Amino acid sequence: MRELKIVGLDLDGKHIICEGDDPADKFEIRVDDRLRAALRGDGARVAQTHIDIEVTNMLSPKEIQARIRSGASVEQLAEANGVDIARVERFAHPVLLERARAAELATAAHPVLADGPAVLTLLETVTSSLVARGLNPDNCSWDAWRNEDGRWTVQLGWKAGRSDNVAHFRFCPGAHGGTVTAVDDAASELIDPNFDRPLRPVAAVAQLDFDEPVPAPPEPAETPEPEPKAEPTARARRGKPAVPAWEDVLLGVRSSGQR
Known about the structure:
alpha+beta; 34% helix; DUF3071; elongated; SepH-like; 10 helices; single chain; DUF3071 domain-containing protein; 259 residues; three-stranded antiparallel β-sheet; six-stranded mixed β-sheet
């Protein structure tokens, strides 16, 4: 076994440069966890392979399920911990089913109002509220996760126009479906029995005057001047022709007195 002498570090500081008996023989040693452990005298750590170290850094199945149950998504958990998404999905699947079941049970619970639990279920109440606001309840999404205190938080998501909205409820399983309590303002408005107002306040629109202007009275028409009367014609001045008498007609006497 040849003995090497440390010369120094390379420019990036990730390798140790060594040389042998002949200064022309140069060697590089990568600075990794095993080398650091060897310098500390940690023999057990030195014996680990690179694959062993990666497995140690991975999340355990119990940790994966605990984080998924508390509300994390598969994609978020895999990206945050540098873990293959397929590995997370394998252990997250039963917990995701548990969350979906909790959300389904919560929709059958009864909202708690100021005077006690409502008769209608959460699903019936929310459906009526959204329909009254002109929204389609079929486009809603439900989710649930368990908090650190062991209770369930239920989330309702819906879309209004181009905005994505969410409301959160606290679900307590129990007799007759259990109860749900509003956590935020959006949830309170959804289960409010007087839900005749929009979920989001809308600025008042300035009142516009749409009254038609009163038309001006028509100007009086000018009275035409009377046309001058026509002078009587000669025929009119002569008058009507004379009518012969009855006896003249019988005797054949003309109007001029000749027979």
